[in-house]
Amino acid sequence: MAHVTGPACWSCPRHAQNGGMNTWYTQLNRPPLTPPDAIFGPVWTVLYAMIILSWTLFVITTLQERRRGNTPLPYRIYAVMAGHAVCNLAWTPLFFGLRSPGLALIDILLLDASLIVLIAGFWPRNRPAALLLLPYLIWVLFATFLNLGFWWLNRAGL
């Protein structure tokens, strides 16, 4: 489950091997389809390149529209982008730092919802930017399944 939701997770297996977090994480019951840790680094590298490209394309498009006087800047979408980034970065401390799959599950559900809002918000202005987020959405929904599984399978001992 380490690496499932963000760049802060990239080093989780390394952190997990050092001390108490390793003991806690390795003792958790794992949901079906939990991939090996080695999968997460390459997947996140590709996904984050796509996310950066998507967000850059969207911001460039909105700034160009603004310069032409066509539309105001989409501050609500920018706010969702910021909230999404905060949720993304919060997952690792919630899951591993607080050892709380339940709180991490709430966070990742917010991440799911904000990502859907971003894709819908990007679509009318820059379809390639929206499409670039679809693999990320699939991965985060898979991560939500895993997070739910970790919470459900370990709820009695948490």
Please describe what this structure looks like.
There is one protein chain. The protein is mainly alpha-helical and 158 residues long. The chain has a domain at 75-158. Helices cover 72% and strands 0% of the residues. The chain is built from 7 helices and no strands. It has helices at 12-16, 20-27, 40-67, 75-97, 101-122, 127-132, 134-154. The two termini are 16 Å apart.
Task: For this entry, give a set of tags.
single chain, 158 residues, mainly alpha, 7 helices, 72% helix, disordered N terminus
Which secondary structure elements does this structure contain, and how are they paired or packed?
Elements: H1 12-16, H2 20-27, H3 40-67, H4 75-97, H5 101-122, H6 127-132, H7 134-154
Question: Short description, anyone?
Answer:
By secondary structure, the protein is mainly α. It contains 7 helices and no strands.
How far apart are the termini?
A: 16 Å
Taken in chain order, the helices and strands follow as: HHHHHHH
Using only C-alpha atoms, the radius of gyration works out to: 17 Å
* Biggest sheet overview: none
Helix content: over 70%
